[in-house]
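Review session, final week

We close the course with one last complete record, chosen because it touches almost every idea we covered. It is Response regulator, a protein from Streptomyces bluensis with 251 residues. Go through it on your own first, then we will talk.
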Amino acid sequence: MSGTEGMSGAGTGTGTGTGTGGGTGSRADDGPIRVLIADDQMMVREGFSVLLGAMPDIEVVGEAVNGREAIDRVRELSPDVVLMDIRMPELNGIEATREIVAANSVAKVLVLTTFDLDEYVYQALRAGASGFLLKDASARQLAEGVRVVASGEALLAPSVTKRLITEFSRLVQAPRLPPSAQAAYGDLTERETEVLVLIAQGLSNAEIAERLVVAESTIKTHVSRILVKLGLRDRTQAAVFAYEAKLVTPG
């Protein structure tokens, strides 16, 4: 799966994205981005720590060897970004992500995976992860991924979002939206619903603006309002919501 559409197109690489607009919860200060690395493999933790530690705007504040420890470290250290392995002992990365998000932590979760079409990646996104990276990401891709997620954006290019969600919404039976989500969806305006559908179809803000013949800044405003009304963290969760609300049919 590709990196950003602007960075590496549709070949092989990481699942990084351009962070195209509309994220919420961006960092309030200009200090170094605080990162927690959660992985049960010591070599992975040490390797990522060295790579990120060489970046002047990033600080590795801690490590965790399993999902339970990751939750404790997030509570203790308040990192901006958690690099979260999916497969870990005691508590896996999906459940750890779900608990971190449920606790309204400011930390954004960036899932680490070996395969870009790993079924568990989709589950992690549904749990609240802001994106994913392959473990063989380059130092530049890793650092840029951390920066994008820390800024409050989603680390998935539009084409990646569409491919990933289309693939796994075939495999995962989408649950009915809870009453609170149904009520929130009812608060969207007709234009906001239209924008939500286009997000789920994989269009960037610029492409949505062109499609609707409006300014890109207007689309960014719509995306922000959609996220606030639906109580979502970023456009990746918005795309998942649209599929599970059956506003978009995979394919």
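Two points worth writing down before the exam:
The chain has two domains: 33-155, 169-244.
The mean pLDDT is 79.
Good luck, everyone.
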